Amino acid sequence: MNKSIRVRALTGTALALAVTTVLTACGGGSSSTSGTTSDGTPSATPAVTVRDPLVATFDGGLYILDGKSLKLAKTIDLPGFNRVNPAGDRDHVVVSTDSGFRVLNATDQALTDIEYQGPKPGHVVRHAGKTVLFTDGTGEVNVFDPADLSSGKKPEGRTYTSAEAHHGVAIELANGELLTTLGTEEKRTGALVLDRNNKEIARNENCPGVHGEAAARNEAVGLGCEDGILIYKDGRFTKIDAPDDYGRIGNQAGSDASPVLLGDYKTDPEAELERPTRVSLIDTEKKRLRLVDLGVSYSFRSLGRGPHGEALVLGTDGALRVIDPDSGRIEKKIPVVGEWQEPLDWQQARPTLFVRGHVAYVSEPGKKALHAVDVETGKKITSVTLPKSTNELSGVVAGH
Q1: Element (H, E) at 20
Q2: 253-276: string of b/e by CB count within 10 Å (b at 16+)?
């Protein structure tokens, strides 16, 4: 996750129906472009050099910004509802479009010819030097080395197709094992593990509604369930139960600097949209789940991790909370944006958190703004106003 498709708490068939429409909807309209044609190819307009580029989506396109100054360098017209995730190197970002995954060279500010076609492109996961794509509409998994993207050609990599298509996720471990979810369009139950030759070596189907993943220190991988979280580490699955009968963890953020995973936490299976005020901290070593009450709600785009493993949560009061993952203590609150409320439709824009190193980037769609904050000092580095309100926010991130 890592940063990936996130959906509100729905169960059974309702959830399956919700995710089947994830990437078929169109954002509608087109935008003016400052350097590309409508199909994303470079135009004659010279590109502005960017450092550590950021990529933000808006209704009908992408903004490429300088990661230091936040200056808008390029606008790319790309109709439809698009999503963005780091590709795993210093130059590229993966764009999920209506037709599949497309690779954007954010440094060169142009869409490449590299594409993984398929309906409903879902989660993009970076770990152990590999990037893994999961296409929900087919159940296909594609694994590649992001360093190979620099060739401009589609990388040759491992592939696997799930027994049935579903809204899933996969991650390849350092030893070549592939952990991938189990499910159908109607129901998701758990996960299995494949060796380097795609032979099944482990399975656990005690994770109803499995959704989302994150890796902690020492390569402990968590998969969210509707009643807790499923941990895979050292060849074994371990289930950590939630304190509530329905305690859904669907979105997580991990850090190599901490054995503790940060997760959301929802308890109302019937809610059209639950606005939770508690987050979960899952200690993958002690196999313990702790809940932290923030006193304010947040959204699935509110979770992140700091450079030393700090748990970060952007609240609807506009403050970024820095939480000690070991004690659960809120160490500080950093005011970043104005108060906001999570919209009912998950595809609608809301303030979004993207963390890279010591810097937390936060969008503020209501003001068409983007802010950069130093996580450690709590000071705002810079802000910028953009032509249109943005939705998703990501950037280049080298190394996993």
Answers
A1: helix 12-20
A2: bbbeebbbbbbbbbbebeeeebeb
User: What confidence tens digit (pLDDT) does each residue in 99-158 have?
Assistant: 999 999 999 999 999 999 999 999 999 999 999 999 999 999 999 999 999 999 999 999
**Do residues 398 and 65 touch, judged by C-beta distance below 8 A?**
no
Q: Give residue for tokens 């209506």.
A: 98
Distance CA 397, CA 216 (A): 17
Share of the chain above pLDDT 90, in %: 86
Cα-based distances in Å from 169 to 133, 268, 303, 327:
8, 24, 18, 30
259-313 pLDDT, tens digit each: 999 999 999 999 999 999 999 999 999 999 999 999 999 999 999 999 999 999 9
- Between CA 279 and CA 276 the distance in angstroms is 8
Q: Of how many residues is the chain composed?
A: 400
Q: How far apart, in Å, are the Cα atoms of 66 and each of 55, 366, 394?
A: 9, 21, 12
Nearest to 149, CA basis, from 193, 202, 92, 82: 92
Q: Which residue, 263, 357, 359, is CA-closest to 302?
A: 263
Beta bridge partners of residue 373, listed in sequence order:
360, 380
Contact partners, residue 327, CB within 8 Å, separation at least 6: none
- The C-alpha atoms of residue 250 and residue 265 are separated, in whole angstroms, by 8
CA-based end-to-end distance of the chain: 11
CB contact at 8 A, 289 and 280: yes
**Longest distance between any two alpha carbons in the chain, whole Å:** 59
Which pLDDT belongs to residue 48? 78
pTM over 0.85: yes
> Quick one: pLDDT at residue 151?
94
